[in-house]
TrEMBL record:
<dbReference type="InterPro" id="IPR000515">
    <property type="entry name" value="MetI-like"/>
</dbReference>
<feature type="transmembrane region" description="Helical">
    <location>
        <begin position="183"/>
        <end position="204"/>
    </location>
</feature>
<keyword id="KW-0472">Membrane</keyword>
<dbReference type="Pfam" id="PF00528">
    <property type="entry name" value="BPD_transp_1"/>
</dbReference>
<dbReference type="GO" id="GO:0055085">
    <property type="term" value="P:transmembrane transport"/>
</dbReference>
<feature type="transmembrane region" description="Helical">
    <location>
        <begin position="151"/>
        <end position="171"/>
    </location>
</feature>
<dbReference type="InterPro" id="IPR050366">
    <property type="entry name" value="BP-dependent_transpt_permease"/>
</dbReference>
<keyword id="KW-0812">Transmembrane</keyword>
<feature type="transmembrane region" description="Helical">
    <location>
        <begin position="114"/>
        <end position="139"/>
    </location>
</feature>
<dbReference type="InterPro" id="IPR025966">
    <property type="entry name" value="OppC_N"/>
</dbReference>
<feature type="transmembrane region" description="Helical">
    <location>
        <begin position="291"/>
        <end position="315"/>
    </location>
</feature>
<keyword id="KW-1003">Cell membrane</keyword>
<dbReference type="GO" id="GO:0005886">
    <property type="term" value="C:plasma membrane"/>
</dbReference>
<keyword id="KW-1133">Transmembrane helix</keyword>
<protein>
    <submittedName>
        <fullName>Peptide/nickel transport system permease protein</fullName>
    </submittedName>
</protein>
<feature type="domain" description="ABC transmembrane type-1">
    <location>
        <begin position="112"/>
        <end position="312"/>
    </location>
</feature>
<dbReference type="Pfam" id="PF12911">
    <property type="entry name" value="OppC_N"/>
</dbReference>
Length: 324
């Protein structure tokens, strides 16, 4: 005799339990989360990066002083040592002050904001340019592939920092003198982006050469999809893994490139100083005993670049199926 199942009851409770799993439960059981929580180095590096990013975003709220407002500066606070109160004004500074009496902690938070902004936007620009050119080169082929890859080969023969410096100099020369300080950050972003697109293009081209031979691309041709539709809607999602890895590692390289250019005096202007600019300022006083002006911005840059690099290396390993 058949048993009638009551209305609303489920004949397969195990199936209902599987469906009821939330996105977080599926993520908690994934290999990526297991690899993350089992690596203390990655946890520390990601937390360090998160703290630095939050400090940069909320720098106007977290900074104890407004370091780049001339009306708030007091030259009597100049060269105050860390964790001491100035003997003339009585003001306390956790990380000391520079030659103009600016709080070093506040300058680091604001400089960190510029460095991260330049690095992130430059990587987004390089990624967009490299992905588009890589898709065209790998999918269309022919003379387009030859031209793009020869340009990439020529650019790879030069150090990226040299290419960025050259492009920055050309860009500054094309801008009217009265607009150079205002446009310096954007010229810096474009220069770094144009020096970092090659890795994206070469990686996406190689992946596209493999993907275009698969059946789903041939099916797209049969139903009349355009080339751009196949490249952007079907091939691109299948090559996002390598793109994310390169973007993470390129972020650290872009931050270091920006700091290098600013340290050499050809990057961020003094009115919008980055970590590189602050390091350049501190270098001038290292021999006279004011070590903290150089040390703390340098440690911040080191922590930022190292945390991004470690996270990028972990992401590369965890997304590589051959290493699982």
């Amino acid at each position: 005799m058949d048993t009638q199942i009551p209305k609303g009851a489920s004949a397969r409770p195990e199936f209902k339990e599987t469906v009821a799993k939330t996105t977080w439960q599926r993520w908690a059981q994934s290999d990526i989360w297991h690899s993350y929580k089992s690596s203390p180095v990655i946890i520390v590096s990601s937390l360090t990066f998160a703290v630095l990013v939050l400090g940069a975003i909320f720098s106007p709220l977290l900074s104890p002083y407004t370091p780049f407002d001339p009306s708030s500066l007091n030259l009597m606070n100049g060269f105050t040592k860390p964790m001491t109160a100035n003997e003339f004004t009585g003001d306390y500074f956790l990380l000391g002050t520079d030659d103009q009496g600016r709080d070093v902690l506040s300058t680091i938070l604001f400089g960190l904001r510029i460095s991260l902004f330049v690095g992130v936007v430059a990587v987004l620009f390089a990624m967009t340019l490299g992905v588009v050119l890589g898709l065209l080169s790998g999918y269309v082929g022919g003379w387009i592939d030859g031209v793009i890859m020869r340009i990439a080969d020529i650019q790879m023969t030069f150090p990226s920092i040299m290419v960025a410096m050259l492009l920055y100099g050309i860009g500054k020369g094309l801008i009217p003198p009265d607009l150079r300080d205002e446009m310096a950050i954007w010229v810096l972003i474009i220069s770094i982006g144009l020096s970092e697109w090659v890795q994206f293009a070469r990686t996406v081209r190689g992946a596209t050469l493999v993907e275009r031979q698969k059946e789903y691309v041939q099916a797209g041709h049969l139903i009349g999809l355009t080339r751009w539709s196949i490249m952007l809607r079907h091939i691109l999602p299948n090559v996002t893994g390598p793109i994310l890895v390169i973007a993470t590692i390129s972020l650290a390289l872009a931050i270091i490139a920006e700091a290098t250019l600013s340290f050499l005096g050809v990057g961020a202007p003094k009115t919008q100083p980055s970590l590189g600019t602050l390091i350049n300022v501190g270098r001038q006083y290292i021999l006279s005993g004011e070590w903290w002006i150089l040390l703390f911005p340098s440690l911040t840059l080191l922590a930022l670049a190292l945390s991004v690099n470690l996270f990028g290396d972990w992401l590369r390993d965890v997304l590589n199926p051959k290493l699982r």
